[in-house]
Amino acid sequence: MIPLPLVPRPQTFLGVPAAAAPVAGSAAIFGAVHGTPYVSDPVESGAETGPDAVRRAVTAACLDAGHWDFDFDGPLLNDGALEALDLGDVATVHDDAPGNRKNIETVTGAVLEAGATPILIGGDDSVAIPFMRAFDRGEPLHLLQIDAHIDWRDDIGGERLGYSSTIRRASELGCIASMTQCGIRAVGSARRQEVEAARAWGSRIVTVAEARRQGLAAVAAALPRDKPLLIHIDCDAMDPGTCPGVNALSPGGFTFPEMTELLGAAIRGRRLAGFSIVEFQPKADVNDIAATVVGRLVCHVLGHLARAA
C-alpha cells in the first residue's frame, strides 16, 4: 500500500491512538493547515498550527477521554462503541496550492474508501474544497454549512479555489443533493449576484436571527433524511465571545450551547458522511478559548457517532 501523504503530530486528539491509515468503522481525525491562499495572503510563520492548538487545548481540558462526559451522560466514546484515530496532518505547504488540494483529497478519499468517517480540522476554508471533492466519487449527500458567510464567490482576483468560493464549488459537485446554510449574518464577500446564485441553485439560507426565531431543532428537523449528511463549520459562525480565534470577527453569532444543540439535532437519526471545521486562527485566540471550543465541537460529533443507532 502506498503511504498516505500524512505527517504524524506530537500529540493526538484526546490521546486517541495515532494511525498512518484509516480503519473501517472508525472516526478518522486529521488536520489540514494549508489550502489555496490568495496572492495577498501572508505566509504563516512556524507558530503552533490550528489543528495542533486544538489537539493540545482540548486534551488538556478533557483530561481523559475515558472519564464521564456529562454532555453525553457517559464516557465520550461510549465505552469503546466508537473507535477514534488521529491520522496526523495532511502534508501541506503554503506555496503549493495544487499539491495541498491533491493531498487533502487523497487522504479524505482514502478514509471514505476504508469505510471510516473523515473529521477534518482546518486550516482556512479553502481546505474544505478538496475535502468535499473526495465525496463526489460516492453517493449523493445533503450539505449543512454553519457559517457567518455564504462563500459563493466564483472567484476573487481570478482565484476560484480560495476560501470565499467553498460553497460555490460545492454546488458544482454531483454529490450535493441539497444545501442548508445556517448562521449567516452581517457583511462578507457576497454581493447581490452571489446571493441570487445561491438562491437560484436552491440553497436554503438561514440567518442567525431566523434560526433563533424558528428554533435550532426546527432548523435541523427540516434537513432531509433520505441521504447522508455532510457538515461543514466555519468558526466565525460563532459569536466572538464564544470563539475569538477567527479571521473575521462578526458579533451576534451562535453560542456554544446553540452550536451543540444544532449539531446534535442534525446528526441524530441521520448518517453522518463527514465533518469539517475550519477558519480557526490560533494567533487570534484568547487563553485557548477558541481552541477548546473547536475541540469540544469535534468531541460532540464523536459522542453522537458513538451513540448512533
Automatic annotation (TrEMBL):
Record keywords: Hydrolase, Metal-binding
Keyword Nucleotide-binding: no
Hydrolase as UniProt keyword: yes
Any one Pfam family match given in the protein's UniProt record, by short name: Arginase
Segments passing through the bilayer: none
Stated family: Belongs to the arginase family.
UniProt-listed PANTHER family: ARGINASE/AGMATINASE, GUANIDINO ACID HYDROLASE, MITOCHONDRIAL
Protein name: Agmatinase
High-level lineage: Bacteria, Pseudomonadati, Pseudomonadota, Alphaproteobacteria, Hyphomicrobiales
